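Re: the multi-chain job from yesterday

Posting the exact lines I submitted so nobody has to dig through the queue logs.
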Amino acid sequence: MTADRPKFSGASRYVLDDELASIVNISMALEMPLLLKGEPGTGKTMLAHAIAENLGMPLIVLNVKSSMKLVEALYQYDTLTRLNDSRFGDSRRDVSDIEAYIKMGKIGQAFTAAERTVLLIDEIDKADTDFQDDMLDVLDQMEFDIIEIDKTVKTRHRPVIIITSNAKKDLSDPFLGRCNFHHIAFPEPKVMRQIIRVHFPDIDGDLMTGAVTAFYKLRELDSVEKKPATRELLNWIRALRADPDFHPREIEKGAVPYLGVLFKKSQDFARAVAATGRRSLR
Amino acid sequence: MFITFFYRLKEAGIPVSPTSFLRLQKALSAGLVASLNDFYTASRAILVKSERYFDLFDQVFAHHFEGAEMPLREGIDLDEAIQALLQEWLRDPQMLADVLGIDAAEIGKLSPEELIAYFKARLADQKGRHAGGSRWIGTGGTSPVGHSGYHPGGMRVGGVSRNKSAVKVALDRRYRDYSHQGPLTQAMVGEALKRLRNLVPTGPKDQVNVEATIYQAMKNGGEIEIVFDRSLRDRLKVILAIDNGGWSMDPYIPVVQTVFDYARAQFKDLKTYFFHNTIYDILWKDPARYRKPQRIDEFVRCDPETRLIVVGDASMAPYELTAAEGSIHIEERSGRPSFERLAFLAETFRHCAWLNPMDERYWDYSQTVKAIGRIFPMFTLSLDGLEKAITHLMQK
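And the result, structure tokens for all chains:
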């Protein structure tokens, strides 16, 4: 195949491992959607942003919601505006032309865009299985019909499709059959340090060590529903740095200020407070 | 190319499809794969569709390309069992000697490696009938050594590799923590909660969906068509009965309680009770099973639509279930055998389920599991089992 195929090689704010990079490149070359699973905070969503930044493509994000119908992701027929126009006739739109009232949804936008785009379908597991299977049909065929005007929308440039899922349960077989798959493990402390350094290039060494150690200790707490993830850690460090009275040595002594940044659910928060109060987090 | 590799994956139990294999060929012919490393990532991303099989894939890959030993099928459980056993041995060499049927002095001479080899050989002999004993590795026994699927340390963190050969990476078996279909762990709490969300009754279609109605009316050219949605009925009452006697159940109790406590808001009423091994006349409100008794006869006053969920390994001596004075606690003896009392509960609450943390493969080896399974619909205490149990509980 051609040598000038765009290759993904990381972005300015994203720590990429080689394995994931080659999986992304293979998926792009095979023109297959890439399904990413893994705990929240492992950078599934960030990957799509990084690809878009690195390859200079526009990013289109479809945030899946549980009540979502496939047609909403494809296009919307704005019946209310049309009714309004037909009654009051004060717009420049032609009421007899239904196409003027069709708005593209996120998938529709990616299909009709003038250049190749990155299409991120975020948290697919929220929708029901029918949605998932139907959507994959559309992505497979790379075309869909607008029933109201009897027109078929075909893709101009096959988008790079990244799909993320938080569920530990598997998606349906036909769905999986049409995707490549990768599971992103939670970063090890070493990688986490790199991630922190990317975000805070001037971070103090003591603060980094203390924060990372305390963070991984807190993640090991039992019975926590929502474990703090990378995003929480970064926000926490931001909070610690913003506090002029804070000194990294406090963490070494076992104090964990701003626990609320790390634990967002009241039960989890109570557990974390109890745990940090009981034993030092060194 | 790599057809034997493909079939080895299939034999190992990874659901690989010919379509995806053809796609791998496409990737190969497109020149996307330049090294064994690339082949590892490419074949895994294309062929394997769930992290549950990553560990197995690693094993097969290492076996196929490097001739690494393919572990026994239950290799994962085995390793943990061995670890636990060794720890136990350090505490009590005499007991271990009895278990393995050799002299304590002789064991002292064995190196840990030799001991493991000896132990594996013994376990291979034992295959298929190691569920009920009191000292052997198994699921139903009272032995302190491991129970398949329980991770004392919770989910470990998988690593990220750099500059390692693919075979070395595969040999690392980084994904073993994900490969368990087995019982619930703390890491799965969030997932389990999602299953419980279905524990909501639905009512008749009697609520007007305004948006859909407007849309339909517009589509019909102004002819009004009213669209109805299903309304939610009142929330459910749930009784949770947990076997907290004996440490064979210990790892699961906090998980089960966490799951249901977090879901509490979703229920109208959630009552948790405790029992040891099986239920006689009394369930206990306090985990110590001492201060707050609750006579099960009084349950007839409860709403019969209450969902009863029992969590226990259902493993005990058969007489505890069948004998009129079966309870191992004298004060609980009432003259009625436990299986009658269980049947009474199953009749009182027609929506009931028994969740068993034991691996389904071993159920047939235990008489009491089979007997209780005839009274209560029994499901494994895993994500899949939970889902099935919820579906069963929500049946009309």
